[in-house]
Design goal:
The protein is α+β, with helices and mostly antiparallel strands and 161 residues long. The protein is built from three helices and six strands. It is 32% helix and 17% strand. A six-stranded antiparallel β-sheet has the order 1-2-3-4-6-5, covered by helices on one side. The radius of gyration is 17 Å and the shape is globular. The termini are far apart.
Length: 161
C-alpha cells in the first residue's frame, strides 16, 4: 500500500476523521463535527512522505513513506516496554531499532517517548497489525474527544446555575 492508498484507507475506514495535508504529509485527527479549534487539533496518525523533518527513516527514497500512530501508554508498553528517553546527538531516541527498516512496526524515532510507533512502507508483514493499531488509535482519539466534550458540557451547565 503506497502513501496515497494509506491516506485513503484511514480517511475512508474510520468515522469522524479529519485529514489535513501539508507539504505532502497528512495528519489525521478525530473531529466528527469539524469544529475543533487549532490548539486542540492533535493527530492520532500521520503519513509522512519526505525527509523534511528528519532523515532517519530514509524517506528520500522513491515511494518511501512512514506511517506514524499514537497509542495509549498501555498499548505501547505492552508491545515495546517502557518508552525510551535517551536521545543521540540528532535527537533520535535510542529504541534499538533501525528506523529505516521497511514493513516493521517499531517505536517512532522521535516520539516514542510519547507512545508513538511507526512503520516505514507498511506491507504484507504489517497489514493486519497496522489495521488493528490504527483502529486502537482511532478509538483512543474518539474517547479523548468525548471526554473533552463531556467536560465542556458539564462546565457550561455549572456556569448556568
Amino acid at each position: 500500500m503506497d502513501a496515497t492508498a494509506m491516506t485513503h484507507y484511514i480517511s475512508e475506514t474510520f468515522d469522524g476523521v479529519r485529514a489535513v495535508e501539508s507539504s505532502g504529509d497528512t495528519f489525521f485527527t478525530y473531529d466528527p463535527d469539524g469544529d475543533l479549534p487549532e490548539d486542540r487539533w492533535l493527530p492520532f496518525a500521520t503519513v509522512v512522505t519526505g525527509d523534511d523533518h528528519d532523515s532517519v527513516s530514509g524517506l528520500d527514497a522513491p515511494e518511501a513513506y512512514r506511517l506514524n500512530i499514537g497509542l495509549t501508554k498501555a498499548a505501547y508498553t505492552s508491545r515495546f516496554g517502557p518508552a525510551p528517553t535517551d536521545r543521540d546527538e540528532h535527537g533520535v531516541l535510542d529504541t534499538g531499532f533501525d528506523h529505516s527498516e521497511r514493513d516493521r512496526v517499531m517505536p517512532h524515532p522521535y516520539y516514542a517517548s510519547q507512545y508513538w510507533i511507526c512503520v516505514v512502507n507498511p506491507g504484507a508483514n504489517t497489514t493486519d497489525d497496522v489495521a488493528r493499531l490504527l483502529d486502537e488509535a482511532h478509538r483512543f482519539a474518539a474517547r479523548k474527544h468525548a471526554n473533552r466534550s463531556g467536560r465542556g458540557v458539564r462546565g457550561r451547565a455549572q456556569d448556568s446555575r
